[in-house]
Amino acid sequence: MAHEIKRIVSGMRPTGPLHLGHYFGVIENWIALQKEYECYFFVADWHALTSEYTDPEKIKGFTYELALDWFSAGLDPEKSIFFIQSEVKEHAELNLLLSMITPVGWLERNPTYKEVKQELESKKDLNTFGFLGYPVLMSADILMYKASHVPVGEDQLPHLELCREIARRFNYLYGETFPEPQSMVTEAARLPGLDGRKMSKSYGNAIFLKEDFDSVRQKVFSMLTDTNRMRLKDPGDPKNCNLFPYFKIFDPNMDVSEIVDGCKNATRGCTDCKKILFEMIVKFLEPIHKKRKEYEKGTLIMDILHEGSKKARGKAQQTMDEVRKKINLTY
Ligand code: TRP
Ligand code: SF4
Question: Residue 102: which residues within 8 A CB-CB, separation 6 or more?
């Protein structure tokens, strides 16, 4: 090969609005990748259905919201292809064909499958064919575009390993077709939640990208800081404070030495820090809210997604022609 292909495929399930944790965990990274790679980013609505099949009516709205969050946050629809998984039916066909060669044991042993199933057991019945096959569908998403790299969170690594195994098995059985995609692990949860745990909608410790500033203010001012600082004159330590790491994440060049000193010798109060942080978050969110207003106009978001789905379909049809030939299913 003359030069290495640099192609990214990644998706997100439409399950709710994006928060700052998503931004600093995933979106920031995707924005950077857009510059160097040919990227296919998609809304994994079929994957959302694997666990939300009893209430599917929310998925459509979340799909729109997810794309709106993406573009408001700075992902550029001019640079990459953005599409909806279920708008490219070829994914379902490749999922079917890959499922023929995937041993059930591989799926049952998958640690992410076991963990998620256990975690949601009390709320959802995940003893379905579709949920077991989650990584096969994910493999179809990735292999369809012959991705060289797949940026994912750490929890998705077992799925990606399966994808590589499925690719190898396909190539072995039917001839060299799919490159084995490399994972790119996105640094887990760079930004902690308001209470120090992982930022998550379900923990109620998140600030959303679309959140209005009054609500942001309330959340920031109720953040838990160093619990040794019951009173202003109690010395503290930024090491025990879950607000402190926010400063460097929002502004890597910020000089925090004064804050550290003031905290340790109790010459500054936590309210001072909260005021500064609130201003920083406002400054960060302002352009995002502004872009959001633009993208909310008319049918812009759905136009972009339909256009992207059309382009993705073009590429997917090429792959499927090749795949059908390899399996000798052309008539
Ligand atoms: N399973 C991924 C997640 O929950 C979403 C996803 C679906 C995906 N298909 C993919 C990610 C293909 C990367 C590549 O985060
Ligand atoms: Fe955290 Fe600032 Fe309070 Fe120290 S003064 S505990 S760094 S919020």
Answer: 133, 136, 162, 166, 169
CATH number at 81 reads 3.40.50.620
Distance of CA 197 to the CA centre of its chain: 18
The predicted model gives 14-29 an average pLDDT of 95
Does ligand 1 have an atom closer than 6 angstroms to the CB of 9? yes
Is the confidence at residue 1, as pLDDT, over 60?
Answer: no
The answer as to whether 271 is a domain residue is yes
**How do residues 155-205 score in pLDDT, each as one tens digit?**
899 999 999 999 999 999 999 999 999 999 987 668 999 998 999 998 999
Indicate whether 39 and 167 sit together in one domain: yes
Q: What is the pLDDT of residues 119-149, one digit of tens each?
A: 888 889 999 999 999 999 999 999 999 999 9
Same domain, 60 and 130: yes
Range of the domain at 271: 211-292
At residue 291's C-alpha, the angle toward residues 195 and 9, to 5°, is 75
Mutate which of 51, 112, 141, 154 for ligand 1 pocket (most atoms within 8 A of beta carbon): 141
**Residue whose CA is at the smallest distance from ligand 2 atom 6:** 226
User: For residue 2, what pLDDT band results from cuts at 50, 70 and 90?
Assistant: very low
On the 0-12 / 13-18 / 19+ scale of CB atoms within 10 A, 129 is exposed
Ligand with smallest separation from the Cα of 234: 2
Q: State the total domains in the chain.
A: 2
Q: Is 197 within the bounds of a domain?
A: no
